[in-house]
Amino acid sequence: MNLSCLEFRQLVGAVPDSRDPAVLEHRLHCRACAAFADEQAALDSRLEAALRIPVPDDLKARVIWSQSGGRRAASCRWAAVVASVALVAILGVLAGQIAGSRSLSAEIAEHIEHEPARLVFDANTRVAEPVQVNLVLEQGGVHAQQPLDNVVSAGLCPFNGSHVPHLVMRIDGEPVSVLLLADEQLREAREIHEDGYHGMLIPHEDGAIAIVAPRPELIRPVREQLEAAVQWRL
Amino acid sequence: MKLPPRGSIDSMNARQHRFEALVNAFHGDLFRYAAWLCRDRELAADLVQETLLRAWKALDGLREEAAAKGWLITILRRELARHYERAKPAGIELDKVPLADTRPGLEDDAELAVVRGHIAQLDDEYREPLVMQVLLGFSVEEIADVMELKQATVLTRLFRARKKLAVALNSGQPQEVTG
Question: Which of A48, A87, A100, B119 stands 20 to 30 A from A155 (CA)?
């Protein structure tokens, strides 16, 4: 089919990279239309660059974690998580306002107590992929020098004015909670005994690691693993 | 290839990997497409999250990976329609739409800002097929399918969108999108 110049420009104006034989044929024989096609191609390059707006860095991690949380928990349980996260956010703000008047141990116990859904899992709950865990860690300013084992839940939680990685690990079938606190400095390790929780608050480089478990003997293997792996990012 | 039995650990792992591959491949395009439709980065991120969660639930219905992009775009359009049913969009000041990432160090150059401003000024009916074609690489047939339009209508809209942009860009009147 032979195209007129008008037909050519209507087609190329709509589909600049058209490989239609009639378009290619016309372009070969009409210099003015070939120039028009070049202009359209140049315009499209500008448009494509402009359309490629930056994508939020955390979008992928946000999607994968919302999906993995939803899969593990029943809908009512998920609602509880959402509610508890909101509550924790409010508590975080309040905690920030009265900073210094309460112990770090109490805040950690309170945080874990308000996210009970994280501690619910069974033998079928899948251990998170290291890549997923690393996404959360990186978002929380932590680099893992080696993969963390037995993590069944990970997320960023508001805590004392920043967002910190909160992991739950399955040790001997029981939940051990971990908060990685890059902004908390400690002189020495402390035990946590709050509201029936047993734990350790351990200084690590320029930050601190909080480990809380239902039984004291579950803490040591987690501590060894974290001390070998966790590195704060600048 | 024999698929693992439904409900088995292997089956769940395969499903998870398939989903993560979709997220990796398409979250960026979905975000950009959503942002150009609603002209709101925060809302676009929420829409992408909702879209991919719905995709996760319906993943077994996706037979061919080649159809994934169109499938996801269709879900996202429905999500946006649902959002607008719940909350009618307020009058948006187009010259103040923060489409670009405005954090320090991520500023775009002036040329991009001007082109973005003109694209944002296009009517939805012109902007959407243009974004599908230029950004997502959709053919006219695919755009017509997703938008439920005749191919001739899509061709007309694409032609007019480019013509309006060419005129605007050559008029020397910048419509910069600011944060």
Answer: A100
CB atoms within 10 A of CB A87: 12
**CA atoms of A189 and A176, how far apart (whole Å):** 18
Assess A53–B contact: CB distance below 8 Å, yes or no: yes
d(CA B165, CA A42): 12
Q: Cα separations (Å) of A41 from A37, A47, A155, A163, B139? A: 6, 10, 45, 45, 16
CA separation for the pair A19, A22 (Å, rounded): 8
The pLDDT of residue A60 is 87
* A interface test, pick of B13, B20, B97, B149 with most A CB neighbours within 10 Å: B20
Instruction: Name the E strands within chain B.
Output: none
How far apart, in Å, do the first and last CA atoms of chain A sit? 64
> Higher confidence at residue A68 or residue B80?
B80
Q: How many CA atoms lie within 13 A of B85 on its CB side?
A: 6
Distance from CA of A56 to the nearest CA of B (A): 8
Q: Which of A49-63, B54-68, B115-129 has the highest mean pLDDT?
A: B115-129
- Provide the token pair at A193: 């005994």
Top-ranked range on mean pLDDT: pick from A23-37, A98-112, B16-30, B78-92: A23-37
Largest Cα separation within chain A, whole Å, is 86
Residue of A nearest to B39 (CA): A53
Task: Note the ipTM here.
Answer: 0.83
pTM: 0.58
Cβ–Cβ of A13/B159 closer than 8 Å?
yes
